[in-house]
Amino acid sequence: MLSKLSRIAVLISLTLIVTVAAVGQGPPVKYFNERFVIKEMASLHAAQVTYQTTTGHGSFGSLAQLRSAGLIDQALAEGSKYGYGFVVTPNGTSYKTTATPIRYKKTGLRSYYIDQRGVLFGNDKGGALATDADVYIDTCSLFGIDQNERCTITAMRTLYGAEVTYAATVGNGSYCLIPDLYLSGLIDMFLGSMSKHGYSYGIEFTTGPSATFKINAKPLQYGVTGRTSFFVDNTGVVRGADHGGAPADQNDPPINN
């Protein structure tokens, strides 16, 4: 278990990581097709995760293998879609995927990168390949408030699952702060910084035989990045309501979608 000072240090370092990495903004109108490329990269990651846990028996697959398993369409399997060239490089329990404009400034501006961590990076590379040293792209923040809120609901469920897993393993029955979940490999560093999808996240927890936790998610800018505040506790029920930017609580209605 981390000391209080260690947790503060971790939180500060995570905040600095996110600040340095920055968050990519939406593609210029001229390159609207990049929005589809971004969604395709997320779909490719989902296909890889499915392949790894089923046909791949623990390993990630090539584009041809993903197509053979029925997880992607033929156009993507051929490595060209939406004016971009897609390259997947599997390496057992890891993989790298890049998406690069076929004709720089004609079919696209930014290059993109994703790997087994499921975090998307990208930037204007002049037509060269992107890497994980490029700008973090929050795929939810590109598509407005509704998508922010949908992704935040998923994040709340991820945090719930991570807390339960932590308590059942290294926590020995105790819950922890959100940065601890990142250090335990249960969430990504951006969620670990307690700021993602246009929302800020906070947690309260108790220890002992009847340990509990409460997690809140509030819009960073009410009316701009989100309107609904969300809440989940150790019951696993995600709740939410419009509180004008104030926190949600256990008295709010369940989120069913």
| Share of residues in helices | 25-40%
Q: What is the mean predicted local confidence, pLDDT?
A: 88
Which runs of at least 5 residues are low in confidence (pLDDT < 50)? 8-23
What proportion of the residues form beta strands (DSSP E)? 15-25%
Task: Please summarize the sheet with the most strands.
Answer: 6 strands, antiparallel
Strand order of the largest sheet: 1-2-3-4-5-6
N-to-C span = 35 Å
Overall shape: globular
How many DSSP helices?
7
Helix/strand order: HHHHEEEEEEHHHEEEEE
Structural class: alpha+beta
Radius of gyration: 19 Å
Instruction: Give the total of beta strands.
Output: 11
Explain the overall architecture:
- This protein is α+β, with helices and mostly antiparallel strands.
- The chain is 32% helix and 21% strand.
- It is built from seven helices and eleven strands.
- It has helices spanning 4-21, 33-53, 63-68, 74-77, 145-168, 178-183, 189-192, and strands at 80-81, 84-91, 94-101, 111-115, 121-123, 135-136, 195-196, 199-205, 213-219, 228-233, 239-242.
- The strands form two sheets. The chain has a six-stranded antiparallel beta sheet.
- The chain is globular.
- The chain starts with a helix and ends in a 15-residue tail after the last strand.
- The model is unreliable at 8-23 (pLDDT under 50).
